[in-house]
Design brief:
The complex is a heterodimer of chains A (584) and B (242). Chain A folds into four domains: 1-40, no CATH class; 57-261, Beta Barrel (Porin); 266-380, Immunoglobulin-like (Sandwich), CATH 2.60.40; 388-582, C8orf32 fold, CATH 3.10.620. Chain A is built from ten helices and 27 strands. Chain A has helices spanning 3-16, 23-54, 59-79, 285-290, 402-415, 424-438, 460-466, 471-483, 552-569, 572-575; strands at 91-101, 110-113, 116-132, 135-150, 156-171, 182-201, 204-226, 229-240, 250-261, 268-275, 279-280, 294-300, 306-315, 322-323, 327-329, 334-339, 354-366, 368-380, 385-386, 442-443, 455-456, 468-469, 489-494, 503-509, 528-531, 537-543, 578-582. Chain A has an eight-stranded antiparallel beta barrel. In chain A, strands 11, 13, 14, 15, 17 and 18 form a six-stranded mixed β-sheet that branches. The two termini of chain A are 40 Å apart. By secondary structure, chain B is an alpha+beta fold. Chain B folds into two domains: 26-94, no CATH class; 97-105 and 150-242, Tetratricopeptide repeat domain (Serine Threonine Protein Phosphatase 5, Tetratricopeptide repeat, Alpha Horseshoe). Chain B is 48% helix and 14% strand. Chain B contains eight helices and eight strands. The radius of gyration of chain B is 24 Å and the shape is globular. The chains are: A alpha+beta (584), B alpha+beta (242). The A-B interface holds A 420-424, 486, 514-516, 518-519, 521-526, 529, 533, 537, 557, 560-561, 564-565, 568-569, 571, 573-574, 582 and B 41, 43-46, 59-60, 62, 92, 104-105, 108, 112, 119-120, 132, 135, 137-141, 143, 146-148, 150, 179-182.
């Protein structure tokens, strides 16, 4: 069996169930529409660029138009769908081109200043690698060349060449809140600047060069197109020789691209998967709808809030996966997510013990969705298996079974006109028990099966058909018959420390109030007074169901005696080895 | 062969020891004096039989005295107990109770009365209407026809326990009695007994509670009763000992 393939096929089937107008399809169409509109827009920019380049406009004008186009491209990106996970890769390199100026208002390739016409150009190569969360180490090496010409009197040309080799830190400061495509950042650093000046005044030339220490600080924005490629705009202020008045200190505006690689940090991590239930007992399949079969411990490792959903199904006993529902995990948060199952009707027909595969898919989403799959094996027992936990025995009580309802009503109808309302439940219970004796239902021990290890419990109709059963079978039969008439029942479990095996019998609610108990018996040791679900106190009758052959009186006496001796005299109730478990 | 005999001997000895232990733990009482109407009921039987001198009663049995009945019981630990007229007592109520055992039992009784979480929370299903009807047949068994007055003999049994200084037994019996009857119009008498018994057992907190209940019941129901006054004295004593 290939459970994964099977599951994937099923998933595909489910996603295709729908239908043209399903929300998922609509989202997908909208996404494609947006994508194509971005491409069309980009083509229009390129055509416009070609027109500009081939036009007769002066170079200065062409270059400035080129800058504006780059700005427009970035602006377009900001309004486009945010579907990336920020800068997700760990390492990258890039290149930037741009302009330099002492005055931030003149950040163009060509500008007119007080000192004259300024030409500037910069080129940078940079390398970055993730330091922690959204902090990156960044190394920049590049060249800045500026030339200021003034020709009012004597032609003067000041040329400055700077080669910064700076090392610093960059922080994508909104990534933890918004892991989208556009990631603004700030950065700072320091390093050596190789600076060279040349001043030519007429025929005179003055040159100077040297290595200076400088610092930089700035901000920028990365626009990620894919996880491995981004556009970049970056503005930095370089303070060479740590003096703002230094001719090499100034602003630097760059545009560029970068390529990234390396491990993409997982959005989440499955820290642990614990099987809470390794053995599934079909009789309590409804219980597993709310009780988790497993717990998946998920940790948000993304550095921003994500939503997590767990889908689970048990093959081949589920028709569809069950979702835990999306829950938010804050940055770094660890959560145990319960895995529950919706069973199909096949589970109630299991006749031999068999393994089953529990498929768990953990989905994490934050703009994009990431899936992780886990499988585990569990054992599915037969429909009649019981693990010995007495509170689970209530799942074998089937008051709604047709045969059971038919029998109980037939017996009730035969006596209902002859009994006063007060004693109705008691008389019904009495007659039902005596009818079982007439039907020759008898006690039959389960051969060679210890009580607390996967006992075999028959459903009420099966015990009727087999004409007998052990203590738990007979308790289930009698309880089902009484419950089908609306008479409340409870099990009494006796785990006598002096006995090697446990025992089970039953009490039922006679509906009689304590002050009317004398109508049933004059000996208050033959009953218990318990609070009913409605809150009133009523008389409950203990019945030793294994004495089915001997009739109601004998079974009641033995039940009362057992309860009195074990529960009261020997303090079984106080010490906890006698327990009462309500069927409701 | 010898070792086999020795082994059998050891087994017999163990059985004998266990039997003796069993005898020791199975509480019994013997009637040593009886006059007037005295009846006993064995375990869960419905019928009463005459109680005569030398009759051995087991802890599961019940003894009852008529209006002229008096009986003295010899308990198996050597103590004697006198049951006065119109009283009823389960033999188990005379069993010697250690204080620790008493409070463990009382605690369990109180815990048992607590509602279990979620047990009675109804499931709301918005689209489904479920109606649990009840039979319109309201015919009742007339209480007057069948009811017997067990309350008075039971209270008299408690009075006997209290007057003979069986304080732990008094406490347990009263707590069980309230479990059965819940309210008793006795002008605070039982709560006074409870308070005094707790006081004697050095349980001043529970004694105060019981005395206060006796005061309330006395004030509400019967102003001329002696029990509120006695309860007040009890409270004063407790204040002084603090």
């Amino acid at each position: 069996m290939e459970p994964k393939t099977m599951r994937l096929k099923k998933y595909t089937g489910i996603s295709q169930v729908g239908i043209e107008n399903s929300p998922a399809n609509q989202r997908s169409r909208q996404h494609n529409k947006r994508k194509s509109s971005i491409l069309t827009l980009n083509r229009e920019y390129i055509n416009f660029l070609k027109i500009i380049i081939s036009s007769d406009l002066p170079m200065k004008c062409k270059l400035n138009i080129f800058e504006y186009i780059l700005f427009l491209l970035l602006a377009t990106l900001t309004v486009s769908e945010l579907s990336a996970q920020g800068i997700s890769r760990s390492t990258g390199f890039g290149m930037r081109l741009g302009a330099w100026s002492k005055n931030p208002g003149h950040l163009s390739f060509i500008s007119e200043g007080r000192e004259g016409e300024q030409y500037s150009g910069t080129f940078f190569l940079y390398f970055f690698t993730r330091f922690r969360d959204h902090w990156f180490w960044e190394f920049n090496v590049g060249g800045i060349l500026t030339q200021i010409s003034e020709s009012e009197t004597i032609e003067t040309r000041n040329t400055t060449g700077i080669v910064p080799m700076v090392f610093g830190l960059r922080n994508d400061f909104i990534a933890h809140k918004n892991p989208g495509r556009i990631q603004p950042y700030y950065g700072f650093g320091m390093g050596p600047y190789l600076v060279g000046y040349e001043t030519r005044r007429g025929e005179t030339t003055y040159q100077e060069e040297g290595l200076k220490v400088g610092v930089y600080g700035g901000a920028g924005v990365n626009a990620a197109f894919t996880t491995w490629f981004t556009f970049n705009a970056d503005l930095k202020y370089h303070m060479v020789n740590l003096v703002p008045s230094n001719p090499a200190s100034g602003f630097n505006l760059n545009f560029g691209i970068s390529f990234m690689w390396g491990g993409k940090p997982d959005m989440f991590r499955i820290r642990d998967t614990r099987l809470v239930v390794t053995d599934i007992y079909p009789a309590y399949y409804q219980f597993y709808n709310i009780y988790p079969l497993a717990l998946v411990t998920v940790q948000n490792t993304s550095g921003y809030p994500i939503e997590v959903n767990v889908k689970s199904q048990l093959n081949p006993f589920s028709n569809r996966p069950k979702d835990s529902g999306y829950m938010t995990l804050q940055k770094g948060e660890i959560k145990d997510i319960p895995v529950t199952i919706i069973f199909n009707s096949d589970i109630t027909q299991v006749s031999s013990r068999e393994p089953a595969v529990l498929d768990i898919v953990v989905e994490g989403r934050a703009r994009t969705t990431l899936r992780r799959e886990i499988t585990a094996q569990v054992i599915v027992h037969t429909r009649n298996s019981w693990n010995g936990e007495v509170d689970k025995l209530v799942f074998f009580v089937t008051p709604e079974n047709d045969k059971i309802m038919q029998l109980s009503r037939q017996i009730a109808d035969a006596v209902k006109d002859s009994i006063p309302g007060t004693l109705q439940s008691f008389t019904y219970a009495q007659n039902i028990f005596n009818d079982l004796a007439k039907k020759e239902i008898k006690y039959q021990n389960d051969p060679n099966v210890p009580y607390y290890r996967d006992d075999r419990v028959h459903f009420a109709d099966e015990t009727l058909q087999l004409r007998g059963g052990d203590c738990d079978d007979l308790v289930i039969l009698y309880s089902s018959l009484l419950e089908s008439l609306g008479i409340n029942t409870a099990f009494i479990q006796v785990r006598d420390p002096e006995e090697s095996i446990a025992h089970l019998y039953l009490i039922f609610d006679s509906g009689v109030s304590p002050d009317q108990a004398i109508a049933i018996t004059s000996n208050e040791k033959r009953y218990l007074i318990r609070e009913s679900i409605r809150g009133d106190r009523t008389v409950w009758i203990p019945v030793e169901t294994t004495l089915v052959k001997s009739g109601f009186e004998a079974a009641w006496s033995r039940g009362a005696l057992n309860y009195l001796k074990d529960g009261e005299m020997r303090n079984g109730l106080r010490d906890g080895w006698v327990q009462i478990i309500d069927v409701k | 062969m010898k070792s086999q005999t020795e082994f059998i001997g050891i087994k017999i000895l163990i059985v004998l020891i266990l039997f003796l232990i069993q005898i020791h733990f199975a509480f019994e009482a013997r009637i040593i004096e009886a006059s007037g109407e005295v009846k006993i009921r064995r375990g869960i039987e419905e019928n009463w039989q005459t109680g005569t001198v030398d009759l051995l009663l087991e802890e599961i049995d019940t003894i009852w005295t008529g209006e002229d009945g008096n009986v003295v019981l010899q308990l198996d630990d050597g103590r004697k107990f006198k049951l006065r007229p119109s009283s009823m007592l389960d033999i188990v109520d005379l069993k010697k109770i250690e204080e620790a055992e008493l409070f463990l039992t009382l605690m369990k009784m109180k815990v048992g009365k607590l509602k279990q979480n979620g047990e009675k929370t109804p499931l709301r299903l918005g689209t489904v209407s479920v109606v649990h009807g009840s039979s319109q047949d309201t015919s009742q068994v007339p209480v007057t026809e069948v009811a017997q007055d067990w309350e008075t003999p039971a209270i008299n049994g408690i009075r006997d326990l209290f007057s003979q200084a069986y304080y732990p037994n008094t406490v347990l019996k009263i707590e069980k009695f309230y479990g059965l009857y819940q309210t008793v119009d006795d002008c605070g008498e039982l709560h006074y007994y409870l308070g005094y018994s707790y006081e004697k057992l050095d349980q001043s907190g529970q004694a105060t509670d019981a005395y206060q209940k006796a005061l309330q019941e006395g004030a509400n129901l019967c102003a001329d009763s002696e029990w509120p006054g006695l309860a007040e004295s009890g409270l004063e004593r407790l204040k002084q000992t603090r």
